[in-house]
Design goal:
Length: 596
């Protein structure tokens, strides 16, 4: 593919239209809606604050339904603010709008914190009486999750202060990271590229292009190591102070509680993947280095296409058809929901200066619909990324039926539909490919799975060591880099050369800043899907797809234990995680057999 082809395709890609929420950041309805919310919150607070413990079931329903309604209105405004910012992080007016809106929303939410605090403290007998009402019964999962946090709650006034100060503490540092990252430009030949563009070149077919891109990425991150190091240090200390006051014993325990997963389950996942590194990344990168006639690959060649690979530009319409056909082969409902994103322009796919790099699916609110952001450049990985985010989008639509407060799936299960969607697309492409194409597809899929499982566990191990060290004192950028190199060397193995150029690449990973300890959820989700896929192959397809859709539709109403039960799977068993590993090694076996 050449630059003109990519540019032509980019000009034809969809850009979402947020005018269905508000016409623009100047829309007078924004101010009107915020003022109306503040009025409703003031009335709500006067009516219910300090009284929740003594409510009858009918009053409880009035209170909780109104609380959900108010939150829906709040998050609709937040959706417009954050998505507008995501598509243009460099415009100072948009940045100001996003920041000021966030400040007002944070202030509103702080006055509502009494609801969850009081619900957490309601006596057991009162809860039992509420749940005798069939309409109140549906709120049982929400109450159960809230009450799990009970031992870690602080005084109500402190909780309010923490929420209000978040805009000038953690959220402010996240904003600094986002705006700094969006403004970075990476020299490449005679051009200055965005982060998304320079990262894309690391999977280019030309070796010299990859090398220049890798060194450029490294140099700019090195030049900004002080600011990224400061951000990480502050985020970590902020988190430790709060978690310590709440009584969490392990630095990861609060994230696990948010994810509704036990510490021991996460430990089992991490230990299983860690022990399997030699048969995962170490084995695969040895094979890949051999394909290039080397014993070691440079780190910027880790995602390089195989030698003699044909690079085909996959047009947007073709990617759409591939994904929808793959989803339809599993169940028509999944495909029909994904089709809505294309039909209604809920996807922003073009590359633009100032736009957030990477990809995400924003759930928005149940009364609206999710939005998807990708940076599509026509590669197979871009098709897989689009399938991944559409999986999220379908999941979010199905889960939205539970209402805003019970729609959100714990992070450990949030990747289920996305990774499963990728697998459906991969298998369709593989089945329709010739031998040489199969080799490319298998290699690409294995790399994606290793990036999702092994690499993310390597990231997790970096976070654990960094946050533990940060408890004692602030770390210099070089000390952070030492931890990074130690943990990543084990994660990729001896056949990838992590030179000095790699030392500061921790600086571009957004999850370390946005959501500390998020990354293991990718490995959890991928391994869970691998186990599900194994079950899918062994079961009645119609029954499985029915159970699968029910699982996605559950949103945040069930734990991983209950969601996996219909599939006879359990995350408490070591064999569960080993199935995830064997799925990857099985693909490696397929790849090696093609050469015999």
């Amino acid at each position: 593919m050449n630059e003109m082809q990519v540019e032509k395709m980019n000009n034809e890609l969809p850009i979402w239209d947020l005018s269905e929420i508000y016409e623009s950041i100047k829309d007078p309805r924004i101010r009107k809606d915020i003022d109306e919310i503040k009025y409703k919150v003031d009335y709500f607070q006067k009516k219910w604050k300090g009284k929740i413990n003594n409510l009858c079931s009918s009053d409880f329903l009035l209170c909780i339904n109104k609380y959900q309604e108010i939150n829906e209105a709040i998050y609709k405004i937040a959706t417009h603010s954050s998505l507008t910012f995501a598509t243009n992080m460099q415009d100072p007016e948009i940045s100001k709008y996003n920041s000021s809106t966030s400040d007002e929303i944070t202030e509103i939410l702080s006055t509502l914190v009494f609801v969850t605090l009081e619900l957490s403290k309601v006596e057991d007998n009162t809860i039992k009486n509420w749940l005798k009402d069939k309409d109140a019964k549906k709120w049982e999962p929400y109450l159960k999750i809230l009450r799990k946090r009970n031992p870690y709650l602080l005084d109500p006034l402190v909780e309010e202060i923490l929420i209000e100060k978040s805009a000038t503490s953690r959220s402010a540092w996240i904003r600094l990271f986002d705006e700094t990252s969006a403004a970075l430009r990476f020299p490449f030949k005679k051009k200055l590229l965005t982060e998304a563009e320079i990262l894309s070149l690391l999977s280019d077919s030309d070796a010299e292009t990859r090398k220049i891109a890798g060194k450029s990425l490294s140099e700019i991150l090195k030049n900004n190591k002080r600011i990224f190091g400061m951000i990480l240090n502050v985020i970590s200390r902020d988190r430790f102070i709060e978690d310590n006051k709440r009584g969490f014993k392990k630095i990861i325990s609060s994230r696990n509680l948010d994810n509704d997963v036990e510490d021991e389950v996460v430990d089992k996942l991490v230990n299983t993947v860690d022990k399997a590194m030699p048969e995962l990344t170490h084995r695969y990168y040895k094979w890949k280095a051999n394909q290039f006639g080397k014993t070691k690959l440079n780190w910027w060649d880790r995602n390089a296409p195989l030698p003699q690979s044909s690079v085909k530009l996959i047009q947007w319409s073709e990617a759409r058809d591939i994904i929808l056909d793959s989803f339809s082969s599993f169940h028509p409902e999944i495909s029909n929901l994904a089709k809505l994103f294309f039909k209604n322009n809920w996807i922003d796919a073009s590359l633009r200066n100032g736009k957030a790099s990477g990809a995400f699916a924003h759930p928005s609110v149940p009364s609206l619909h999710p939005y998807i952001l990708v940076n599509y450049q026509g590669k197979i990985r871009d098709v897989m990324t689009l399938a991944h985010e559409l999986g999220h989008g379908v999941h979010q639509i199905l889960a939205g039926k539970n209402g805003l407060l019970m729609a959100e799936t714990p992070l450990t299960l949030a990747e289920t539909a996305s990774v499963f969607g990728e697998m459906l697309v991969f298998r369709k492409l593989l089945d329709e490919s010739k031998v040489e194409q199969k080799k490319q597809l298998l290699s690409s899929k294995i790399e994606d799975m290793l990036n999702t499982v092994a690499r993310q566990i390597g990231f997790h191990q970096f976070e654990v060591k960094f946050h533990e060290a940060r408890i004692k004192s602030e770390l210099t950028p070089d000390e952070i880099s030492d931890i990074w190199m130690e943990t990543q060397s084990h994660a990729v193995g001896p056949h990838i050369n992590l030179s000095e150029d790699y030392r500061f690449l921790w600086g571009y990973i957004p999850h370390f800043v946005h959501t500390p300890f998020y990354v293991y959820a990718y490995a959890f989700g991928d391994s869970l899907v691998n186990a599900l896929w194994y079950a899918y192959q062994q079961s009645d397809k119609e029954i499985f797809s029915k159970n699968y859709i029910e699982m996605l539709s559950s949103g945040g109403t069930k734990s991983h234990k209950d969601l996996l039960k219909p599939f006879s799977l359990s995350a408490y068993d070591s064999s569960f995680w080993e199935k995830g590993i064997s799925m990857i090694t099985g693909l490696m076996d397929e790849l090696e057999e093609l050469e015999n």
